[in-house]
Amino acid sequence: MREQPANRISEKGLRVWRLYGIMQTLIVFLLAIGTGVLAYIFEGNWWFYIVPAIVVILYAYLFIFLFPKIRWMRWRYEVRESEIELQHGLFIVKRTLIPMVRVQHVDTSQGPILRKYNLAGITISTAATNHTIPALVTDEADELRSRISALARVAEDDV
Q: Which are the contacts of 22, defined by CB distance < 8 A and separation ≥ 6?
């Protein structure tokens, strides 16, 4: 079996994913509060308070601490002259090889949260699908986009 791709995404990406987890947990927390209010209004059993609290705590642990850490540890990429290799996944690790001759164009994207952390994502488009490398430092993302674009042009000229 081949070795893992050499490059990791930025460690700041871990912070961004944790921030997303906090925002999602707040939504679950509001739903739990709504459940508690309804239980109070309709004089529900005690477990109408306990179960939502446990769900919020479990959700917070999974989506703020555990899943972002595993996701960050598993996300790897490597750009070679003839191919791009991606590896990612939480429970099932997926490895993808994208031949340079298949690359049609490369985009960078940066939302407000990524911009705050000076991060950007790269989307590599082929005829079949799009592949994304998330949470790269903005300068690194721009440099990688230019490099992939140049390698794809060279690969296209060779065909």
A: 64
Categorize the per-residue pLDDT at 44 as very low, low, confident or very high, splitting at 50, 70 and 90.
Answer: confident
Single-letter residue type at 113: I
**H or E, element range at 132:** strand 130-137
Q: CA-to-CA distance for 47 and 32, rounded, in angstroms? A: 12
For Cα atoms 73, 26, 70, give the angle at the middle one, nearest 5 degrees.
Answer: 10
Contacts of residue 130, Cβ cutoff 8 Å, sequence gap at least 6: 123, 124
- Whole-model pTM: value is 0.87
Tell me the per-residue pLDDT of 103-157, one tens digit each, with 9 for 90 and over: 999 999 999 999 999 999 999 999 999 999 999 999 999 999 999 999 998 876 6
Structure tokens belonging to residue 7 = 């490059």
Would you tell me how many other CB atoms lie within 10 Å of the CB of residue 63? 19
Q: Which residue carries 């986009």 as its tokens?
A: 145
Radius of gyration of the chain (CA): 21
**Type of residue at 124:** I
